[in-house]
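pinning this so it doesn't scroll away 📌
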Amino acid sequence: MQLIDTHAHINFEVFREDLDQLRQRWQEAGVVHVVHSCVEPNEFDSIQSLADRFDELSFAVGLHPLDVGDKWTAATATTIARLARSDHRVVAIGETGLDFYKASNIEQQVSALRSQLEIARELGKPVIIHCREAALRIRQVFQEFWQEVGPVPGVMHCWSGTPEETQWFLELGFYISFSGVVTFKKAEAIQASARLVPAERLLIETDCPFLAPVPKRGKRNEPAFVRYVAEFLSELRQVPLTTLCSETTRNACQLFKLPSTILGLGA
């Protein structure tokens, strides 16, 4: 049984003291690959060092919407594009997106999002999208960009939207990734969304160190815990765990163009 954690942040200080043990635990849990997201370009060196250390790590580069106010400048887009070109292990642009829950600089966030969509389109890479209290505006940005420039593949990460919102992004070609939040008792809307996502568009993640799934809720999250997300979704969607793991692993490989050896298909 193979699992891929499609969104992690193991460069955070909270992991500094036990990285080797962390890797051992994810390997024991069946995690064969981790996609490391990026909050800001200044993280690039630390994430790259982790990929040097752990062969099963790919990563992204981008700017989180909550950092746009302080860190988005005319040079930021150039930096992201340059870094994305500099290492073949960069498999996505992001995380980018919109967050209207903790910030009100709407147009600045939209501008940064569009710029990162342009980079992804130019480089032929998917985007990792953060969306909080902003589904309608993100949908509008995507629709406009698709019409003016063209579509960009990607994933709505740590998805917490309603079934209606989920359908919007499925229609735009996105994958939908569920984190430990889907396991929470009161997450009925998220669980309803998880039931309707087609098997070929489903991804799983931890978003560690945040949002540890039941039965680890309240603890530091880590890539090994993506197995709990998979187990919950297999029951929720009424499919065998081995099937769900196979489907989500194949989807991650297709979206992020990960090595075919992960699927046992040879080099």
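📌 and the second one:
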Amino acid sequence: MTDHAREIENLVYRYAERIDAGDLDGVAALFEHGRICGMEDGPPETVFAGTARARKMYEMATRLYDDGTPKTKHFTSNVQIYVDEASGTARGSAYYCVTQATPDLPLQIIVTGHYRDTFHRVDGAWWFDSRTMYVDQIGDTSRHLKF
């Protein structure tokens, strides 16, 4: 794996680490130069571009508990990164599996799915350009999502 691919892979993992920590500002910062797409080719209201809009999306959707976390663990696997070094862009995909345990919810898998990502280099650093999230299987997300 190239150094660029490893940097991008670490960016993908950083996303999971920050959301599980309840660090909504940190998650949103990953999209300073990009956007989150709630659905493929969705209407404008499902696209959250930039830090402020990404932060708003997570604030609207993610239930945080007294300890400041969503009491989840996002497991990311099957990460594939394809870098075009000449253009400073890359694309990637990954699977995710989210577990959750709360005082009234025993440990369980609440959702699985996959990401389709694009990346670009800004001032030598890799950033998300876009992340589209797909839900493949869904369980009890009532204690994780606000909707």
